[in-house]
Amino acid sequence: MVTEASPRPLATSNRFRPSFTAIAGLTLVALLIAWLGINFYKTPSDFIQIFLIGFTLGALYALIALGYTLVYGILELINFAHGDVFMLGSMMAVTIVGTTGFGLHQGEPWYELWPLVIVALLVCMVFCGGLNATVELIAYRRLRNAPRLAPLITAIGASFILQNVGLAWKGPNYVQTADVLPKGNVFSTHGVTYTWEKLIVLIVTVPVLLLLVWLVQRTRQGKAMRATAQDTDAAAMMGINVNRTISFTFLIAGALAGVAGLLYALYAGSVRFDQGFQLGLIAFTAAVFGGIGNLPGAVLGAVLIGLIQAFNEGLNWHSPGSDWTQSIVFALLILILVFRPEGLLGERTPEGG
User: What's the Rg (C-alpha) of the chain?
Assistant: First the structure.
């Protein structure tokens, strides 16, 4: 009696055949790792120096990206006006720096100026938080049940309005910020230096991020935010004030933009009315990259975007150069939206309900 051979082993081997997308992605990652490895081998001190710069940029972008991801997580709204709230926070920081006379005290030790910097930080947080909550109250609240296109167009309109407010406030040119950050190196070894201005950014950013995680995960208001994000109607039935919770979310997102605005103004040394649009899009890309709606994902995406920018603009061996930075970042956004729209740490969820 003859037994027929089964073709199943062939079918099994076909099932594990990698797709073209996977092969292309792995090839791209391998080329990127090889490029970074060669640059590290050629100039290790420059590589580490650029890494530290990119990490600092990523920390700044994380503060802005978290504002996007907080609002999207609770309303599934991309608040394009958020970048311009950050820009107005930077301009408020410049105004406070000028009003308190930092420019007249630059000969004094930096630690004598820092009480005023803390006051400026609090003012920027309150200003941006209140501004963001006001935008939600006026522009978005009545459109919650409207088709998704309506609040999206409204967000773009609010962005242009805030941008023109900044243009009328400070004019079209760059506005210089007084240099009040401490000078000198935290450490310098083997050609690698780490300056105080970079450390100050991390000293402010890291506690703010940890405080945000604690607020969302551990507090009663944070539980209300998470419940509203999961199901608005069910949260209302359980006695949660949905309007107040959403306004609080916008308030927190705006406060983060205020922190980022002050740090950027002091770190970069100048601000302009259109910087919110540019940096806001970069921060939005970071939020999508890490997984929009996911707090750790937004931080991870921001750090990676900061490193990509720093490596592209700082490495010498076959680097595309600074003119290509935005093209690379937004090409990355397109690739993420096409091949992994849920981001690096996000979870794929079915559409509809």
Answer: 23
| pLDDT tens-digit series, residues 93-143 | 988 876 555 544 445 555 666 777 788 899 999 999 999 999 999 999 988
Within 10 A of 227 (CB to CB), how many other CB atoms are there?
18
* Nearest alpha-carbon partner for 97 in 85, 109, 114: 114
The partner residues of 176 in beta bridges, in order of sequence, read 270
C-alpha torsion sign, points 151, 157, 160, 161: negative
The structure tokens listed for 284 are 């939005």
Of 314, 271, 274, nearest to 52 by C-alpha is: 314
Secondary structure (3-state) at 147: coil
Give the CB-side neighbour count of residue 64, counting CA atoms within 13 A: 36
- Spatial CA neighbour of 88 closest among 47, 50, 134: 134
Q: In this predicted model, what pLDDT tens digit does every residue of 231-242 receive, in sequence order?
A: 888 988 888 999
Domains of the chain in sequence order: 47-339 (1.10.3470)
